Amino acid sequence: MKNKEPVILTEKLTKRFDSFTAVDEISFDVYRGEIFGFLGANGAGKTTAMRMLCGLSVPSSGRAAVAGLNVYKQTEQIKRNIGYMSQKFSLYEDLTVLENIRFFGGIYGLTDQQLKSKSGKLLHQLEIESEAKKLVGNLPLGWKQKLAFSIAILHEPKIVFLDEPTGGVDPVTRRQFWTLIYEAASRGITVFVTTHYMDEAEYCNRVSIMVDGQIKALGTPRELKAQLNETSMDGVFYQLARVAKRGE
Asked: How would DSSP label each residue in 163-204?
């Protein structure tokens, strides 16, 4: 983490669907160049919270700013300042690797000259020059995953949001993917990642743990393990989940 410059600020951010509260008054800040893990079981409210921060869903109440922009009033500007990758990778499988790069690069506003330069660098970095004209649908899952992430930060956004990005891939590919995350963070890109893999929390600068729409813990992995006298983030999570279930 480079410094303490906040790029995401939230205060009592809430999302309700009729009588159901999916995200319940969450408050936290995220800093420039930080890898921030947004952890919790499936259904904990992680994706709903991320959608509000990405300008894809209007909060019911509370405050939030992303890259200095208001999540209520400046959603289109937010979208231009962030990258986004979902578990489904968001790539067009009936387009080639190069066509996907050029298509999304165009959406991000890159010039033809920038696209040409960045396409070559990206293909070289991922070591897939020989696959440039292959349909994305024919690529192995791990390659699709790394390509989707690289395209999501092609325009050097201030923040990249990753929603369960490593779901369904093997441990070796997951580690390779995290290498790309570290490289992005070293360039000052803030990485906001949701995951239900508790071991991935160890790769983050700080983590928050959501249970039933609320943030039940926030800090570095070392701090959280020390606070709850646990040796792993799995232990931290299950202890918090048990406490929440008892209503304490």
From this structure: ESTTTT--HHHHHHHHHHHHHHHHTT-EEEEEES-GGGGGGS
pLDDT tens digits, 72-87: 999 999 988 999 998 7
Is 149 in contact with 165 (CB distance < 8 Å)? yes
Is the pTM for the entire model greater than 0.85? yes
DSSP letter string, 105-174:
HHHTT--HHHHHHHHHHHHHHHT-GGGTTSBGGGS-HHHHHHHHHHHHTTT--SEEEEESTTTT--HHHH
Q: How confident is the model over 140-165, as pLDDT tens digits?
A: 888 888 999 999 999 999 999 998 88
CATH class held by domain 6-246: alpha beta
Listed by start position, the domains of the chain span 6-246
Phi-psi category of residue 67: left, alpha or beta, with phi > 0 → left and psi -120 to 50 → alpha: left
Q: Shortest CA distance to 10 belongs to which of 163, 233, 218, 228?
A: 218
Q: Strand, coil or helix: what is 91? A: coil
Task: Note the residue count of the chain.
Answer: 248
